[in-house]
């Protein structure tokens, strides 16, 4: 029997997922459980390892970072994961694109696409909804502009995207403000951006900084 663990804090979403699961597999062919937080999820996974699918709203659940999600995947390698959220950041999608055990769909996907995601995930196949797949295809066609940056420039760009000032970056890197300003000018020139906002937007899209870091 297939076990679905619904790791989502929205009542309406859990009810909708239960309906889709029952419609796709029949009520007798699966067991659907709900977990309210990370602790409950880990306890459930400890009991239900085989033939288990976790449907997780990454944006609403109490996971500190994408690395914590990936660590759960390593801890429970038998489990299939399907992220289902209203919105997933570009940085998160890029980060998870190489993780073939994690599928991704959006809550505004069509009914047919949601059912297809459930079927593929149960069969052990990764499923990406068409919007996420199209985004990744577009990203892969684009040149990796940030490769032109040096390691130092990449790190400074990451700090800029996290909201640090020139003075704060200089202090963290034990450098002069003049040196940081020079690096900043070179970064903007190489990326073809004109201000901190555009540089931050680029860093998020390029996966150099996670959305959770941006909001801290």
From TrEMBL:
Q: Name one GO molecular function term.
A: DNA binding
Bilayer-crossing residues are: none
Q: Which PROSITE patterns match?
A: HTH_LUXR_2
Cited Pfam families: GerE
Superkingdom of origin organism: Bacteria
Q: Which GO terms describe its biological process?
A: regulation of DNA-templated transcription
Q: InterPro entries attached here?
A: CheY-like_superfamily, Sig_transdc_resp-reg_C-effctor, Tscrpt_reg_LuxR_C, WalR-like
* Alphabetic keyword roster: DNA-binding
Give all residue intervals belonging to the HTH luxR-type domain: 142-207
Protein name, UniProt field:
Transcriptional regulator
Organism, as annotated? Tannerella sp. oral taxon BU063 isolate Cell 8/11
Organism taxonomic ancestry: Bacteria, Pseudomonadati, Bacteroidota, Bacteroidia, Bacteroidales
């Amino acid at each position: 029997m297939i076990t679905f663990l619904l790791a989502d804090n929205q009542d309406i979403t859990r009810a909708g997922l239960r309906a889709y699961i029952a419609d796709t597999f029949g009520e007798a062919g699966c067991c659907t459980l709900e977990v309210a937080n990370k602790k409950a999820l880990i306890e459930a996974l400890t009991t239900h390892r085989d033939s288990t699918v976790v449907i997780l709203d990454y944006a609403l659940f109490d996971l500190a970072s994408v690395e914590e999600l990936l660590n759960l995947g390593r801890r429970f390698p038998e489990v299939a994961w399907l992220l289902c959220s209203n919105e997933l950041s570009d940085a998160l999608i890029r980060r998870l694109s190489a993780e073939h055990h994690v599928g991704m769909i959006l809550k505004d996907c069509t009914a047919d696409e949601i059912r297809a995601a459930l079927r593929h995930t149960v069969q052990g196949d990764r499923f990406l909804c068409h919007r996420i797949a199209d985004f990744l295809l577009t990203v892969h066609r684009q040149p990796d502009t940030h490769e032109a940056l040096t390691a130092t420039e990449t790190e400074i760009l990451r700090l800029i995207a996290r909201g640090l000032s020139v003075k704060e970056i200089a202090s963290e890197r034990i450098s002069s403000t003049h040196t940081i300003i020079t690096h900043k000018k070179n970064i903007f020139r190489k990326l073809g951006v004109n201000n901190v906002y555009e540089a931050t937007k680029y860093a998020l899209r390029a996966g150099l900084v996670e959305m959770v870091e941006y909001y801290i």
